[in-house]
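Hi there,

I know you've been waiting on this one. I reran it after we fixed the sequence typo, so this is the corrected version. Both the input and the resulting structure follow.
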Amino acid sequence: MEDYREMWRNLGIDLDAHDQLLAVLPPLYQEVILDQKERPARMAYFDMVFSEIHGKRIQELVSLKEKGKKVVGTFCTYVPEELTLAVGAACVGLCGGAEIATEEVEKILPRNLCALIKSSFGFKVGKLCPYVEACDLLVGETTCDGKKKYYEILAEYGNVYVMELPQRKEERDRSLWREEVRELARRLEELTGERMTVESLKEAIRVVNNKREALLRLMEVRKARPPVISGKDALLINQIAFYDEPRRFAKQVNELCEELEKRAQEGKGVADDSAPRILLSGCPMAIPNWKLPHILESAGAAVVMEELCTGIRYFRYLVDDSPGDVEGLLDSIADRYLEIDCAVFTPNQRRIENIKQLAKEYQADGLVYYAIQFCDPYTVEAYRVKKAAEEMELPFLYIETDYSQEDVAQISTRVEAFLEMLGSRAANR
């Protein structure tokens, strides 16, 4: 990695603590990601992006800011990327996936709050994330009670704007959400001094749709038997999608897909075809949270699909770019994002049906449900997902955890028993 210390210092990063963080990441990445066998050659780009996680991309963002452009940070898939791009700003995801500055965080936030919120705040109070520090605006959303109260506190540390997400999907909710999208558009225009036009919105929609289409292409080739890419590599790509430059990212994903499609034609895989195929469902997994996929695949499973926000929920739907006016395009953007089936919605039958469909399409042998402790929407909705799995006679494993490594042995034991059961079922068919 180049010497970025002056850049980090100018952003207000705590260099000593940051050095400690960067010292931990390479060996973790080596063990979890790089030591995998038969990795696709085109994963080299994504390895480079990770190795420069606080380097080249931050340098790009700083360069944009020096040219008068703005950087907008988001915490959720409901915040429309298209609006940020349409005013010439950059958009980056800010969710945290590691225990960071816990002692400082728990002086302000309760201990029994979900790890994702505490991690995001930890990166801020610990002055450890150059993405957060590079942002001119942080955009939150009311996807859970913990987040919306957390944003009140985060506003004391920076420029925060919060979108009101409805909890149902009736017509009155759609009207509310369309107005929220318009209000965010006005806020971004105010931030940047740029007006959204039909042309800038259509171009932004094209860019983000192209990124989604590349990821959908990747998901399609993951149906192959044997699996042509590991679940850990696929998750890494999804995680990088939130902060990499979108045009470059889409190009690299498509080039990887060409390699994977050739592998599929030749019957070459990263795991044996007899490996239990796992559909992973539940809460998002932000970098560097690879704990559960690593346990699953180290035990001999193949994770073939992620029904997560760092998975297909992020890119399942495209935006309709046919309207010829700004208001119509804003409605199209709002309507697309309201399609996302987060557990915060009630009722949420659409998510249950999507999970059933994914299980069939990806020939899943089992469903593993990942829940972050104290994430009420997903821990409660696990009941309905389990019920749906039972109706399909699809084995179900519920894992509730946080970002620590203390329960790795316990989870490994449960995963091994689950996979053994799947093996017995397959042998008795």
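Quick highlight: The beta strands are 71-74, 90-93, 137-141, 160-163, 277-282, 302-307, 366-372, 396-401.

Best,
R. S.
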